[in-house]
Design brief:
The protein has 154 residues and is mainly β. The chain has two helices and ten strands; from the N terminus they run ααββββββββββ.
């Protein structure tokens, strides 16, 4: 894939959009895994990394952060529901194909495919993911449940 101009490289959603627009250039073929959400790292650069994820109906993440990394993700196909914590409860946001979102280093969310069709998304993180904390929402408060480390959990 050709290098992005510096102005677009700083915008992680632009990086996600570029990768999402050319799945033929991905170094790994897209797969759907009936057992669990599939993911593969597409690229790693000095200032970011890019991941592709596929989601069959009902597949999703736990409530988690990105270990201090900022990021963005773009839905390539299908529909995903992102839930973020606001006012002590989860608030859903529907993201259909072509929709994306940027987030900062303290972002905590759940992403799920609640629809009948498979979904595909591209995620970009700066810096590269090294850890992710999983949470429980307990009485309106986030409680850390587990810290997952790169190279061990994924």
């Amino acid at each position: 894939m050709p290098a992005l101009p510096v102005s677009e490289r700083s915008d992680l959603l632009a990086v996600a959009r570029r990768w999402a627009g050319d799945p033929g250039s991905w170094p790994v073929p897209l797969r759907f895994d009936p057992a669990s959400r599939w993911y593969a790292r597409l690229a790693a650069d000095v200032d970011h990394e890019v991941w592709a994820l596929s989601w069959l109906p009902g597949q999703g993440t736990d409530l988690h952060d990105h270990g201090g990394s900022s990021g963005a993700f773009l839905v390539c196909s299908g529909v995903l529901t992102e839930e973020t914590v606001s006012g002590g409860r989860l608030r859903p946001h529907l993201l259909d194909a072509g929709s994306g979102r940027r987030f900062g280093p303290r972002h905590v969310h759940v992403v799920t495919n609640r629809h009948a069709e498979p979904a595909v998304s591209v995620h970009v993180y700066r810096p590269a993911l090294r850890r992710m904390t999983r949470y429980h929402l307990d009485g309106g408060r986030l409680r850390a449940a587990e810290v997952a480390e790169a190279g061990v959990a994924w």
